[in-house]
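Try it yourself: sequence plus glutamic acid, in.
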Amino acid sequence: MTLPSARPVRTRYAPSPTGPQHIGGIRSALFAWLYARRHGGQFILRIEDTDRKRTVPGSVKMILEAFDWLGMDIDEGPREGGALGPYVQSERLELYQTWAKWLVENGCAYKCFATAEELAAMRKAGGGYDRRYRDISAAKSADLEARGLPFVIRFKMPLTGLTVGKDLIRGEVEFANEQLQDAVLLKSDGYPTYHLAHIIDDHHMRISHVTRAIEWLPSFPLHIQIWNALGWEMPQFAHLPVLLNPNGKGKLSKRKEQFAGADGKSVPVLAREFIEAGYLPAAVMNFLSNIGWNYGDNEEIFSAAQAIERFDLKDVNPANSAYPIAKLDWLNSQYIQRADVAELCPLLKPILEKAGFEVDEARLQRVVPLLRVRLKSLKDVAPMAGFFFADWSAFKAPPAEILIQRKMDQKGTADILRGSIPLLRRLDTFDADTQHAAMREFAKATGYKNGQVFGSLRAAVTGQKVSPPTFETMEVLGQEESIRRIELALQSLSDETAG
Ligand code: GLU
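Structure, out:
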């Protein structure tokens, strides 16, 4: 037997296309991807759509969207193609049927003609399937089939003994065979179950390492027996811990009402929600790979490339983890602060456009450095900096409650605005430093505090209480536009006084 470690590394993510992509699935996929990349192997996407009732159209698109967004590249899959495809199970039915038949012919599986009523009665009696067709003669089986009775194919699970498996995360795991049922491999409509299909595919797609949710651990002995019956070399298995709700109770759910965070706000669990919530893909990547796995050195911020250098399935923590969603906002702001302007611009542009702004790219490039340290989420860009991209000619002076700062009054604010206009107009260069120096002088001469002066100007030119720094903002707006806005603000304050 070849040593498993001698096989080229090929991992896969094998979702069932049952609706929007859940973040727990992406986390499983991420571990498979990191492992493949660490070993210079291949990462495969396979769509397990054999449960036709649960298949939701459009799911694959959502899965791919999440992968593309995170930068998790796929080597083989329904979109990428590949030599061992097709990568969608409903397109491989013949293969499963062939092997199910082979298992029957070799005495490892059998046709079961139990009707729905029979099965319901067995359930009612409190037991599972009682194996009533396991030992019928070949002649009887052929006869029932010839009469056109529908049947499923079931695996002949050993009735006694132990099945021992190796899990990369948990070590050796042992199961008593008597606990297991004769599971269905092929349904009466000719579709395989997961138990059969994934094994046939993992073999034919030469998967070296299977990473899947811990929910599959109880079926692991069944799978080991099927692998043995087929006589194929098994991949190595890693059963991954699941994500629990943020309070640590219960599996992280897709249902809205269950995924409120500690503060009662809903937390994202669908891949699409992360995209829409304005998170940076690199921050989400960092966040996900740090759940149940550590980069080490107490380092919380690490890139995908760094994770790839160190990732090992053996180091995954076997315990289920509470979803540490509170960390994500912090991580996200760290990533935004460190990101290049060139990286942020294409992410911010569509958010601004969605908020109704027309984005001038050159201007965006000037604005991003002013914003970077202030954004917790990319979505903050619209309320904070949308005004740079609004129609300037339509700018209206903000109301008095914005213009008049705390501990200021109407007269003082008007004084500051009025006094600053000629000083700003006189400046030959309108960069932030020059403005800053002039306004500091002004504060000194008039006795107003710097904060009062800068704050009044900020409110006048942005119409907002929170914005990028005043002088950098005015530099982008330009001398003429800044002064025009201060004049408008002054005018509106005087109008109010007059009224
Ligand atoms: N289609 C299975 C699921 O979504 C895949 C499990 C596996 O990775 O083998 O749970």
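One thing you can check immediately is this: The CA atoms of residues 104 and 110 lie 5 Å apart.
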